[in-house]
Design goal:
With 343 residues, the chain is mainly α. The protein contains 15 helices and eight strands. The chain has two domains: 138 residues, Potassium Channel Kv1.1, Chain A (2-Layer Sandwich); 110 residues, no CATH class. A three-stranded mixed β-sheet has the order 2-1-3. Strands 6-7-8 form a three-stranded antiparallel β-sheet. The chain has a two-stranded antiparallel sheet with strand order 4-5. The longest helix is centred in the last third of the chain and has 19 residues.
Length: 343
């Protein structure tokens, strides 16, 4: 009866005798030697604390996008903690702390690198996401992300934000573009915008807008029986000097026609060039504005104008490439991290 019961409840499989101890060790060693980690689908994850948010992400993806991060994690460090706590980044209780980074910026950056990893488009990224991607890519020297985000962001930004980010990342071409747009913008410069860019930059923008408006005027032509014909500035009535530009035939005017489309007049008193509103005048006016901006961007040019100022809003948003070294790496990693332009 007992034998029948055991037979009916036991699984239907052949019985096998236990291997000798020696054979078992050999089999175990053989099985372990043949197990390998897949190169594509075996990821090492780490926990990061950014502000008050924990992120659990693949370290391999972060290392792949930045040489700075690769160098940081390649620094030898003690994996065993003295208090028996998990290795840094291995659990929520002991995360890697990213100082000077905002959670929203880090989240947007992860959206970007994961999308690139798995071949999806970046169309799901919003304008603010692209700004965040650029900020993190600039901080961690992620060349591909930096190049792509710069091309996208510069086309999406309004002039004020473009100016702030130009100051933040030291992009003279962005600052120049912002000045050009603000100089010819129909809307007046608001008080909030002045606070954002700072007093000094506000003065520069006001000067550019003044030059733009006044330069669209033409000189006042007067004929004196004894002194002959002269051209005066319409604002200070100073006699102005003539400068010829463009092609007279293109302007459709004779060389003796005062105020013609290819003539401009420089007023040293008002520091403006009277160009007029025609097509050639607009071209000359753009050159005048570009020259004014060049004076602002190049304080060593010994021309009037000074370095563009940065207001409190700009200084508050500026990030240095900084001193971030994961806890546990400090001491050994500080020098090398800074030398590489550390995180």
């Amino acid at each position: 009866m007992l034998i029948d019961t055991l037979t009916s409840t036991s699984p239907e499989r052949p019985l096998s005798l236990p291997l000798p101890a020696t054979s078992y060790r050999v089999a175990k060693r053989y099985r372990m030697s043949t197990i390998v980690r897949d190169k594509e689908f075996y990821a090492t994850f780490g926990t990061f604390k950014v502000e008050d948010v924990l992120f659990r992400v693949s370290l391999d993806e972060l290392k792949a996008c930045s040489e700075v991060i690769r160098d940081m994690f390649s620094i030898p460090h003690d994996r065993d903690t003295t208090d028996g706590s998990p290795e840094e980044g291995a659990s929520d209780s002991n995360p890697i702390i990213l100082e000077g980074v905002k959670a929203n910026d880090f989240r947007s950056f992860l959206k970007y690198i994961m999308g690139k990893k798995y071949g999806s488009t970046t169309s799901h990224l919003s304008d603010s996401d692209w700004v965040s991607v650029h900020a993190i890519a600039h901080m961690w020297c992620c060349e591909e992300a930096l190049t792509e985000s710069k091309e996208v962001v510069v086309e999406k930004l309004d002039p004020i934000t473009k100016f702030e980010m130009g100051k933040r990342f030291d992009y003279d071409d962005w600052i120049r573009k912002a000045y050009e747009e603000l100089a010819v913008r129909p809307q007046q410069f608001s008080m909030d915008e002045a606070r954002q860019v700072g007093l000094e930059a506000t003065m520069h923008i006001s000067r550019l807008r003044e030059v733009w408006c006044k330069s669209m005027s033409k000189g006042l032509v007067s004929v004196d029986f004894f002194a002959g014909t002269k051209v005066s500035c319409p604002y200070c009535l100073t006699v102005v000097e003539e400068e010829t530009y463009g092609d007279i035939s293109d302007a459709g005017a004779s060389s003796t026609s005062y105020g013609a489309a290819n003539r401009a007049y420089s007023c040293q008193t008002c520091e403006i060039t009277l160009c007029g509103e025609d097509s050639l005048g607009s071209k000359r006016l753009s050159e005048v504005i570009n020259n004014e901006i060049t004076k602002l961007l190049n304080p060593d040019s010994n021309l009037h104008g000074s370095v563009i100022g940065s207001g409190p809003a700009v200084r508050e948003t500026m990030h240095t490439r900084g001193n971030w070294v994961p806890r546990g790496f400090r001491g050994r990693g500080r020098g090398r991290g800074r030398g590489r332009g550390g995180i």
